[in-house]
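Can you give me the bound-state structure? Components:
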Amino acid sequence: MSAIFTRIGDAAAAAAGSVGVVAPADVPAAPLPPAANDSAKPPRSARIAAKGVNLQPWTERMRPAALKVLPPLLGLGLLVLAWQILAAQNSAFPTPLATWDEALKLFSDPFYRKGPNDQGIGWNILASLRRVALGFGLAAAVGIPLGFIIGRFRFIYGMFSPIIALLKPVSPLAWLPIGLLVFKAADPAAIWAIFICSIWPMIVNTAVGVQRVPQDYLNVARVLNLSEWKVITRILLPAVLPYMLTGVRLAIGTAWLVIVAAEMLTGGVGIGFWVWDEWNNLNVPHILIAIGVIGVVGLLLEMALIALAKAVTYEEA
Amino acid sequence: MSRFIDIKDAEMSFGRFHALSRVNLQVEQGEFITLIGHSGCGKSTLLNLIAGLTRPTSGALICAGREIGGPSPERAVVFQNHSLLPWLTCFENIHLAVERVFGGKENRRALEERTWKALEMVGLTAAGGKRPSEISGGMKQRVGIARALSMEPKVLLMDEPFGALDALTRAHLQDELMRIVSATHATVVMVTHDVDEAVLLSDRIVMMTNGPAATIGGIVQVRLARPRDRLALAQDPLYIDYRTSVLEFLYHRQGRPAQKLA
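Here's the bound-state model for the whole set.
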């Protein structure tokens, strides 16, 4: 190694004299061994580098990690700065620091109960999540089998597609009065609104998934003469699962959007009602905290479903 | 049993497109038949008719004395793109077929044994636990063949099974197929567009005319002794004769459709 280094160095030095070529960058910066000592050990840095140790300064080594973390931090920092400026202009608007203090206070005791209308933020979040889970679960129980049937039989597809096309764009909140009328209570009505808003993406995506099952797989099923049960469990279900989960993900996104609005209208316990209640108390820091909490919970739900989708998605052969 | 598969005046139209016209063909038990022709000549359509995946517009197809009324495990198909289910392992892909055909008669252990035997036949015992996405194209096609053979079908139908493989892998699988067919005495109908493959493997080469309204334009009886060795055959004058007569049919009597248009 040393011989090569020296030779490159010598050549570069000779060339530098005549044409002004700079020595190659990959020659170590360590002083060249004296010419007489040509067979001596290579410089220590070169030996360590040969073992695969990264000899770049630490600032260089940290660069990829820094580039990943820095932009999001910078973005958040800008948001807080804008908030700070806004708060300085408007005395009714709390500063980020004041909101942070308030949040610490709030989350130090998230599970207290002082009567039906004054409960900790933890209870409010859990109440909302329970409604979403119920409405969403019911929608999955109805929507996924229905999607299968619609996707499998052209006649039924023809029957349902105009209904779905008509009802899908309707805001789920428009269904809230129907829920109140039928169930005569606020809580089931909110669940009903969640049910309605989650069912469309589940039906549509499942049906599309069933229709897109490759003909090859169905031909295999036909040649093997598989029973309808085996066709469903071994071919349709695994082939449709990725589509289905996309529907589920879309549905949970909307459900989390809708629950806040629905709870504002129905009252009781829940993060949406809590926001409205704090607005009535003119407690703006709490509203800001709620916005943050709603965002974080929605993000976590989405991430959990993406992880689930990754786990069940097969690799195309 | 001289007429194991009997195709009588089969006609096939897709809407207004007349694909096959008056196809008549008899296949004997244990015979290896290849269907050859230019693309779009309806050879896959004919194979699908024998498989029962499509029904003829008119005419009759009979297999082992019974009319072909639909697809059935007794006429196993090896698809061009292997069609393994990507979410099942190779073992499970074959087991699905074995279970369907023998599940009523045999216990679980016997079924698993059959599956392993099928994998062993194509030399893929080690890949049993792998998914199709984890193995090569040639291996996938071998699993497809193993799946078809595991059902102990009366007829093995192959739709350009080696079309998507490189030349070396293809040669290897052809040799393997010859070995398996001679061991199992299977009746095979295979679609191909490779003249060498047709001469090497077949007892008879069925040459199809160009569509629309394609039909059988000629049949070459290949009287080469088995087992056949591709290296020895390359010099064999008889082999060269058969090869030439198929080429002559394909490129002289049935010029490429594209050339006709030009």
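A couple of observations. Chain A touches chain B through 18 residues (CB under 8 Å). Confidence is low (pLDDT under 50) at residues 1-36 of chain A.
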